[in-house]
Amino acid sequence: MFENLTNRFEGILRNIRGKGRLGADEVEEVLREIRVALLDADVHLGVVRTLQDRIRERALGEELSGVLNPGQQVVRIVLEELTGILGGATMPITFASKPPTVVLLAGLQGSGKTTASAKLALWFKAKGRNPLLVGADLARPAAVEQLRTLAERIDVPVFSQPGDPVSVAAAGLVEARRLGRDVLICDTAGRLAIDDHLMAEVARIAGVLEPHYTFFVLDAMTGQDAVNVAGAFHQRLELDAVVLTKLDGDARGGAALSVSQVVGRPIAFASTGEALEDLEPFHPGRLASRILGMGDIETLIEKAEEAFEAEQAEAAAARMLEGTFTLDDFLEQLRQIRSMGPVGDVMQMVPGMGQQVRDVEAELDEHRINRIEGIIHSMTPDERTDPDVIDGSRRARIAAGSGTQVSEVSRLVRQFREMRTVMKQMGGSGSKGRGRGPKRGRKGKRQGGGGRTTPRGPVKVPKEGLALPGLGGDDRVGGLDPGVFGRGPPRSQG
Amino acid sequence: MSLRTRLGSAREALGTRLADVRGRDEVDAATWDKLEEALILADVGVATSTALLARVRERAGADGVSDGADVVDLLKAEIIGRLDGVDRSLSERSSPSVWLFVGVNGVGKTTTIGRLGHLRVSAGRSVVFAAGDTYRAAAVDQLVLWAGRAGATVVRGAEGADPSSVVFDAIEHAAAQGADLVLADTAGRVHTRRNLMDELAKVRRVAEKGAGSVTETLLVLDATTGQNGLVQARQFTEAADVTGLVLTKLDGSARGGIVLAVEGELGIPVKFVGVGEGLDDLVPFDPGDFVEALFEMGE
Ligand SMILES: Nc1nc2c(ncn2[C@@H]2O[C@H](COP(=O)(O)OP(=O)(O)O)[C@@H](O)[C@H]2O)c(=O)[nH]1
Ligand SMILES: Nc1nc2c(ncn2[C@@H]2O[C@H](COP(=O)(O)OP(=O)(O)O)[C@@H](O)[C@H]2O)c(=O)[nH]1
Ligand SMILES: [Mg+2]
Ligand SMILES: [Mg+2]
After folding, report:
1. pLDDT tens-place string over residues B58-113
2. Are A206 and A242 within 8 A, CB to CB?
3. A259: which of A230, A410, B45, B249 fits an S-S bond (Cβ 3.0–4.6 Å)?
4. Domain with B29 in it: what CATH number?
5. Residue B96, preceding bond cis, omega within 30 degrees?
6. What is the pLDDT of residue A365?
7. Based on the domain organization, do B115 and B235 belong to the same domain?
8. Spatial distance between the Cα atoms of A12 and A389, rounded to a whole number of angstroms
9. What CATH number is associated with residue B158?
10. CA dist list (Å): A126 to A130, A394, A423, A447
11. Cβ distance A254 to A43 under 8 Å?
12. Please, are residues B153 and B128 in contact by the beta-carbon 8 Å criterion?
């Protein structure tokens, strides 16, 4: 609805150019548009009012810049104000000097607490910690079963027992110490902010656990009531941060902004799907542009990068199977394999590749890869495309150029040829499923906290196709719903 | 217990905007601002609020209303007028009839099935639950527990099974047993996931192929949902032909005002509301009670 907020501002502010500042009337008109946009994004009415005041002040006070047009300038002010509320950098998580580091999750029914508990366990695991999950939701049917099932997928132990949630939490803490687990994550039942009995109960849980981090789990689709709820939880629990869930939907997520403002706490994590690796540190800038419906500029760029990398990898795979795989491709593969962890795990799953991989793997350390890289870089493009042209004198030249031995060059070329032959024989298979099902949890694209498995090269984004929505005056991608992300390469490249 | 009494505690927790309006004996710009604020805080949304208030203004002008309390009454009457006279029954015109439950994650689909099943079993129907959420961890266990409470039987498939085949099997099973009603659970999904919406459309299609027919597709909407609720209703209707809404979690402090936009813009009626987590906490939607609850904030 408000994808074209900038256009509207520009419409209102068209006649401003040439004057030094915005006039009060135009600013009021723009503020009315901003108000509607923010309310449609579920920003709380009270927060909208505060924002309007601040934006008014700045819009009237700032000199008009020569670089941005007035509409763009107002958008920038709005974005800065929103980002300001959401806080600056990503929230750092530190560990208790006396383990376990205790994390408590609380929130309304169905907001995503149990899933987030398991996701956090995975996140801590990826950081080298040994978490224990404590299932203190004894109210919802099969809640502990759900936690156990999720925990099994990530191989994290769960503690729970019948009785009452406060004793479960207390016993869980004892258990964590007994097992020497250094992180305890406590899942709790959903509860309404107005349910005094249950709110008192969660306060007692916090009392026995003395958590280092208390997270309020907030559904991104929540409306105006979010501030009442978060306020009530904050009063009882002294929240440390928000975990914002279901961002894979297309809700604008204004509730998170409101909660941040009212409770004065940052958003620590963003959850973007049901799979356990769908948890990322939160980016304030992204949510700000999403709230304004301007397309998620940062995510857009990131997705474009990922799509670009995926395309490259696919093209290489295709060449591989056709037998037209080049040494450049080979080098790229080596780099990617290195970034994926132990080679054996990855490559040996490829049928028919066992022996060749073991040969390569034996020497595939940092040092060796650097030498291989040096060798390949000393080849001419022709040689890289078709190493069969490399004769004795070329080998000597390459060895000299890369500071290696002729024998090393020979061996690389030989290994490469063998690999290519095997790949050619394998050619044909290679469809990739993308549906949902048990497969989905293992997509392997992300490890743990969202670390990348493919190296981040120079940003190869087709710049002209990615004009920043609204800010560049070119609105090619300005109409993108946030929900579009994750559905493949951006539509903008046409 | 009526919806209104059940909502008592929630009401106390809220502000006093309408009390302000009522207390004034003149109607001015501030009156209209306060009314708009009350609607927006209840998640009615800017567009629907503006439209409602434009009508009320018109009527207030025509009737020469100049008192705050009367304007509030006009507004209530305007909303009730829009909600009244709508058929909110659930159709059982086939044997077995299939009611399909759809919605985003965590809104209360499974819980609603348990309670609605209980209501139908109490009314003498023989009810089968189809465990069509083959994705979420322990979703089937949860449904089985609810079936025990409700007195229904469950047909389940393997984890990760195709939900349409599970639903189809449940319908065939119900037909063979001479059961009256199949309540089909589905996995929660956000409508931005194209493949999952296609999967849902398929469940809906396949469910028609067997012995029964789908007489209701109920979109479960959480009362805390803000403006995205309208988008959800639109998208789920497109995929699965939604025939009605169930508005859950109305026992909390959220008002569920977005359903006014959904009914108004899409003509999808609210049929039941969830007012707690217990077996009896599901009641038919009553427009009068709903509007009172929408407004009686701390009055
Ligand atoms: N689409 C989506 N679904 C989520 C996300 N986080 C949790 N869910 C789903 O939301 C539902 C409720 O989550 P759950 O963890 O059980 O919530 P709880 O009741 O607060 O413990 C489940 O179907 C989850 O799979 C998310 O980020 N995106
Ligand atoms: N307070 C309250 N909680 C509810 C209501 N309906 C469902 N819930 C809770 O919401 C959570 C999610 O419900 P569930 O049926 O699993 O949602 P589903 O993921 O859509 O199947 C559970 O904790 C339920 O107990 C309601 O009307 N009021
Ligand atoms: Mg839970
Ligand atoms: Mg369910």
Report:
1. 999 998 888 988 999 999 999 999 999 999 999 999 889 999 999 999 999 999 99
2. no
3. A230
4. 1.20.120.140
5. yes
6. 59
7. yes
8. 66
9. 3.40.50.300
10. 9, 46, 33, 8
11. yes
12. yes
Pair B79, B130 in one domain: no
What residues contact B214, with CB distance under 8 A and at least 6 apart? B98, B99, B100, B204, B207, B208
Contacts of A45 in chain B (CB under 8 A): 37, 40-41
Q: Number of helices (H) and strands (E), helices first, in chain A? A: 19, 10
What is the overall mean pLDDT for chain B?
91
Q: Are B76 and B42 in contact (CB under 8 A)?
A: no
Q: Which CATH number fits domain A101-285: 1.10.10.10, 3.40.720.10, 1.10.1370.30, 3.40.50.300?
A: 3.40.50.300
Look at residue B137 and give its three-state secondary structure.
Answer: coil
Within 8 A of A139 by CB-CB distance, chain B residues are: 277
Per the CB < 8 Å rule, is B43 touching A141?
no
pLDDT for res A368: 73
> Do A482 and A289 touch, CB atoms closer than 8 A?
no
Report d(CA B66, CA A104) in Å as an integer.
53
- Nearest Cα of chain A lies from the Cα of B69 at a distance, in angstroms, of 23
H helical segments located in A127-225? 143-154, 165-179, 196-209
C-alpha span between A243 and A259 (Å, rounded): 11
Which tokens hold the place of B226?
């803000």
Q: What is the pLDDT of residue A331?
A: 76
Nearest CA in chain B to A151: B137
Of A328, A320, A458, residue with least CA distance to A381: A328
- CATH 1.10.260.30 spans which residues of chain A? 309-446
Nearest listed ligand to the Cα of residue A271: 1
Select from B143, B239, B240, B145 the least CA-distant residue to B183.
B143
Among residues B197, B221, B242, the one where a domain terminates is B242
Q: Is the pLDDT of residue A483 over 90?
A: no
**ipTM computed for the complex:** 0.93
Count residue pairs from A and B with Cβ separation < 8 A.
Answer: 159
pLDDT for A440 equals: 31
Residue A161 is encoded by which pair of tokens?
A: 């027992």
Tell me which CATH homologous superfamily contains domain A309-446: Signal recognition particle, SRP54 subunit, M-domain (1.10.260.30)
Based on the number of CB atoms within 10 Å of its own CB, is A104 exposed (0-12), middle (13-18) or buried (19 or more)?
buried
The DSSP 8-state label assigned to residue A207 in this structure reads H
Q: Which CATH number describes the domain made up of A3-86?
A: 1.20.120.140
For residues A134-156, give the mean pLDDT.
97
C-alpha pair distances (Å), A454 with each of A312, A334, A337, A340: 11, 11, 8, 8
pLDDT digits (tens, 9 = 90+) for B2-13: 444 444 433 433
Mean pLDDT of chain A: 77
pLDDT digits (tens, 9 = 90+) for A46-102: 999 999 999 999 989 888 766 666 777 788 888 889 988 887 667 888 999 999 999
Residue B200 has pLDDT above 90, yes or no: yes
Report the 10 Å Cβ neighbour count for A9.
24
* Predicted local confidence at residue A373, as pLDDT: 83
DSSP codes of every residue in A308-322: HHHHHHHHHHHHHHH
Residue nearest to atom 6 of ligand 2 (CA): B108
A110–B108 CB contact, under 8 Å? yes
Q: Which atom of ligand 1 is nearest to the CA of B193?
A: 1
Q: What is the DSSP letter of A224?
A: T
Q: What domain range includes position B64?
A: 3-83
CA–CA distance, B54 with A255 (Å, rounded to integer): 27
What contacts 24+ positions apart, CB below 8 Å, involve A394-402? A399/A375, A402/A371, A402/A374, A402/A375, A402/A377, A402/A378
Nearest atom in ligand 2 to the alpha carbon of residue A143 is: 23
CA distance B207 to B165: 9
